[in-house]
Amino acid sequence: MILTGPAIAEAVKAGHITIDPFLPQHTNPNSHGYRLGDTLKVFTRTPVDPRTSPPTRTITIPARGYRLRPGRVYLGSTVERIGSDHYVTSLIGRSSVGRLGLFTQISADLAQLGAVHQWTLEIVVTQPLRVYAGMVIGQVSFWDVVGEPMPYAGYYGTLSDPSPFAPHALAGGGAVGLLPEVSAA
Amino acid sequence: MILTGPQIAGEVEEGRITISPFDTALLSPNSYDFHLSSDIGWYRRRWWGGRTLDCRRPNRFVRSTIPEEGMVLRPGRIYLASTAETIGSEHFVPIIRARSSTARTGLFVHCTADLIDLGSLGRLTLQFHAVQPVRVYPGQRIGQVTFWVPTGRRELYRGKYQGSTLPEPSQIWRDFEEEDARGAAA
Known about the structure:
Chain A is mostly beta strands. Chain A is 9% helix and 35% strand. Chain A is globular and about 45 Å long.
């Protein structure tokens, strides 16, 4: 079952869902809006190779906004720390932003129970679009689970910066054996 | 929990789900197929020919009609189109998807915005992104809607797109106006 907006707000109050900071005006009938953080990362070399740490360039979104171009993925992050031990989070976009052709993730909407962090967004635009830090860019929904819980042992769920893929995680590794990020100056 | 096709039909009959017009032939085991209407639109180029959209400002939008012989959607731009059906529910959360046949043509029917608010009612605005050129036809069976059981107190949608009958451009610029107004009031 999917939680209604009031149920999300109650679960946040009860400590069963983390949305931090939690702004009540961002609650929708069955989801909660999240905001775009001010940092984006882009890969500086293609083809991207899943076996090597990718060089990235960091972009800070200025007050006048930043123009996203099609044909590449921008890694962003949510302003809010989001996650839950009790409900499965699903990360989606928002109608007002989808109507401008922006995707907030690339067929990877499912969070894992227990991962609480600022989510990395995989932003793709269909046509050039100016975005602003702090705008509500998407929403999360929360879903009931059935069955015995399993502790979260993943890697990305421990990160709060916009994070590129990690070769060890792609190969199936968990939180151990973290590799330093390679950054192109 | 997701509703089965027969359950969707039952809820439509009970008035707890609106799908209008409704035809049992469009039911699947756990979804209902909807059609593309002939209404479509896209954002105008700027006077200097630029195609950049801006979240903070209204973007000029032009509406058009898909002719009977179809219309080719091109990659590199977002098209907004309407479903032929009026769809909504105050009791179950609708989530939309492409039909598999549509997806196989390389057409996205939404841009990561599949979730419909409880209480929202109207002809849905589809967000078309064509990966490669693809022709669409008015009346085409293009997508499907699923219905999910919510838990918790219900607060219904009263947003800016309520009751849409035509493809509606983004009104996200209103967020910025509201924010500016709050800032000015503070």
